[in-house]
Amino acid sequence: MANQCVTKVELSISCKNLLDKDVGSKSDPLCVLLQSVGDDKWTEVDRTEKVKNCQDPEFSKRLCIDYYFEKVQKLKLGVYDIDNKSVDLKDDDYLGGYECTLGQIVSSKKITNPLQLKIGKPAGKGTITIVAEEVKDNRAIVLEVEARNLDKKDLFGKSDPFLEFFKQDDDGKWLLVHRTEVIKNNLNPSWKKLTVSLHTFCSGDLNKPIKVACYDKDEDTSSDLIGEFTCSAASLLQAKDQGLLKADSGSAVEFECIHPEKQKKKKSYKNSGVVRIKYCKIEAQYTFLDYVMGGCQINFTVGIDFTGSNGDPRSPESLHYLSPNGVNQYLTAIWSVGQVIQDYDTDKLFPAFGFGAQVPPDFKVSHEFSLNFNPSSPYCQGIDGIVQAYRMALPQVRLYGPTNFSPIINHVARIAATAAQQPNAAQYFVLLIITDGEITDLDQTKQAIVNSSKLPMSIIIVGVGEADFKAMEVLDGDNGVLKSPTGEPVARDIVQFVPFKDFANATRESLAQTVLAEVPNQLVSYFKMRNLSPVNPPAPRK
Predict the structure, then answer these.
(1) How far apart are CA 500 and CA 502, in angstroms?
(2) CA–CA dist 499, 262 (Å, integer)
(3) Given a cut of 60, is residue 4 above it in pLDDT?
(4) Tens-digit pLDDT profile for residues 244-259
(5) Among candidates 428, 137, 173, which has minimal Cα distance to 294?
(6) pLDDT value at residue 538
């Protein structure tokens, strides 16, 4: 994987004349990018932000994808009207999609096409425009911005300001590169720290013109301009050391917000407020490959559910029943995920545990027993070693219960916590739990996941069998942020849940791709949170 020639490509998306699905207001569109993994299965690569009340959205979030010249990469762009906080798009209205290959987009640089609800059925007059740019720069610009004395635009309250940043393209047009959050009812707002890739922000050219526009958000109509100014990344960077100084020390870089119409009409007009850059710095943005190729080991641990709800392993109805060719869903999941992940672990020694069984010699229930029955050395040699240990353990244990996840999560978390004490990006841990889904210790597991989210680890849960996996979907923070019983939210999303039945007729590769899809971003998000560079950083890319 590391030696293939990979180019990073950014896609900027805009749409026109989207279908209107909301009664009383316009749609709230979002665009999702899916890539084919074969067998008519698609996996999500990236998605834009949601734009409220808009039928002609210009999305500020770029969609990032790795481009492989030697592969045909089939893509599907889907536009949805988002009506809830759930990340799952199944319950949102589909406004249309467009299918093509990445090669088609890259070779055209810019394409506009009609959206379709299905093949041959247009989505009204809706169109999608995709612009592709190769990313050659791994740096990002980090900004802290506030404003003072903005004009009051609302009749009954103060303005609800937000900022939009634009760069000028080669033909003089302004391209949206970032939109901040809206701050309600505030003429002296301070926005959250923002990080934008330098390529997106100014195409890596610090002297390229940048326009910053401040708007008052209006939920019912289009937003009102408060004022704007032009600058460059170089002028913003004059604030680079001000983050260390007090915000009121008067040393931030300031720009007057000018409303062109007001300036024309009033001789006495000064400005519509001042935007202050409190902090600005350029940082390296490291990728998953930068960390892995820079010396980060990914440690793989497996936890297998041996509870009674799986059924007697001797019965063909049991999920642990070994078919005549020696296979079941547990083994297929271990092989699929293990084959990919073992390439990133040099010693190929994988701890493997079982939970929920009565274990010899005294047949006490255990929730974290070594699959090889050697507690001091639970390591199996390679994926084949895990498979062998599983086949040996199966006839020796008695399936029992309850189904407790927290002991095995806490076990890996203890090892990850030791690694986290080292001030480097050398170790990351992936725990694969394979279960039939009837979890007993939900509260303790939520707490264990929240604790683990501060550590260098990810948790993958594969659900086997036909059970209702509602509890598992709660643990996968996709439908909102997972919180512990005391209300503490996860520091970052670290759980990926996949039901095996969705892949019953698919290739092992497509299961592995879906199961492991989130691990690279989870690894990067942890080391970024800790402000850790790769052990051996790559040479600067320009």
Answers:
(1) 5
(2) 59
(3) no
(4) 444 444 468 999 999 9
(5) 428
(6) 78
AA identity, residue 74: K
d(CA 54, CA 48): 14
Q: What pLDDT was estimated at residue 84?
A: 78
Residues 173-191, mean pLDDT to the nearest whole number: 94
pLDDT tens profile 308-329: 999 999 999 999 999 998 899 9
Higher pLDDT pick, 337 / 147: 147
- Which of helix, strand or coil describes residue 291? helix
Rounded-to-integer distance, Cα 322 and Cα 313, Å:
8
Contact yes or no for 183/191 (Cβ under 8 A):
yes
Work out whether strand 297-305 and strand 379-381 pair parallel, antiparallel, or are unpaired. Answer: unpaired
Q: Please compute, for residue 460, the number of CA atoms within 13 A of its CA located in the half-sphere on the CB side.
A: 29
**Within the chain, what is the greatest distance between any pair of CA atoms?**
93
Q: Report the alpha-carbon distance of residue 144 to residue 193 in Å, rounded.
A: 5
**Close Cβ partners of 361 (under 8 Å, ≥ 6 residues apart):** none
The answer for 251, left when phi > 0, alpha when psi is -120 to 50, beta otherwise, is alpha
Q: How much is the pLDDT for 222?
A: 76
Q: Where are the beta strands (DSSP E) in 61-200?
A: 63-68, 74-81, 93-101, 110-118, 121-135, 139-148, 161-168, 174-179, 194-197
Beta strands in 17-73 (DSSP E): 29-38, 41-47, 63-68
Structure tokens at 246: 């007090």
Q: For 446-480, what is the HEC assignment? A: HHHHHHHCCCCEEEEEEECCCCCCHHHHHHCHHHC
- Looking up tokens 């672990």 gives 345
Q: Are 472 and 437 in contact (CB under 8 A)?
A: yes
- Main-chain dihedrals φ then ψ at residue 508, nearest 5 degrees: -60, -35
Q: Which residues pair with 32 in a beta bridge?
A: 47, 78
pLDDT on residue 17? 95
